Amino acid sequence: MHDSNKLLEQANRQLASSPNTPTAAGQTNSEPPPDKDAVIDALNRMFAEFELVYHNQYNKAFSSAEKLSYAKKIWFSNLRHISPERITAATHRAIRESEFLPTVKGILKYCEPDFRELGLPDSHSAYLEACRAPQPKAEFNWSHPAVYHAGRACDWFYLAGSTEYTAYPIFKRHYEEICQRVINGETLSLPAHIALPETISKPLSPDEQRQRMQQLRDDLDI
Predict the structure, then answer these.
(1) Which sign does the torsion angle of CA 123, 146, 164, 173 carry?
(2) How far, in Å, CA of 74 to CA of 157, rounded?
(3) Cα–Cα dist 39/86, whole Å
(4) Taking the model in full, what pTM does it have?
(5) Helix, strand, or coil here: 200?
(6) pLDDT tens for each residue of 94-121
(7) What is the dihedral of CA 123, 124, 129, 135, to 10 degrees?
(8) How far is CA 62 from CA 42, 44, 67, 195, in A?
(9) In whole angstroms, what is the distance from residue 116 CA to residue 137 CA?
(10) pLDDT (tens digit, 9 = 90+) per residue, 67-95?
(11) Do residues 122 and 150 lie in contact, with contact meaning Cβ atoms separated by under 8 Å?
């Protein structure tokens, strides 16, 4: 046990001495990288929580102190550009949603913003909203513009005339693609409403037309 603790302490020291990571996608050079010690603490908490939740899988994956030490280095090299808060949130999200011990790729996915954080409904709720929204669609009070754009991409007539079994998978594909654009930072908007004029003109009666014509002739002296 003493040797195992020494190996893990050595791994943490090696992680802390690792060079800064290059600028990650979505970051700019003006953004300071996360604090290394804070990232290491977040990763250590992650592994501790995974050991409790995925006990058998965890012990099988990290069957020795050497394997655990090497795993921590790999995880740190892939997650060191992510804030400790986001790593912790991803850990808790993984515990809630995954029955299996997550991989590095899985945690990177969980590090992306949750749909709910961005005000995006889940895909099935979005589908029902798109199907039930009355015409004109552009004037409906959408929960998020992504729902409108997914419905339009799917085709309103297709949604109205197709069964959920047929239409939902197609809508879901469009919706998830649009949601990914939102996660990547794109801002979606709805079509601008065309304001109605304050006064609505009506056709002139035959008598009014003759009077207008006569007035025009008098003005032009013809």
Answers:
(1) negative
(2) 50
(3) 10
(4) 0.48
(5) coil
(6) 999 899 999 999 999 888 777 777 788 8
(7) 90
(8) 18, 14, 5, 64
(9) 23
(10) 999 999 999 999 999 889 889 989 998 99
(11) no
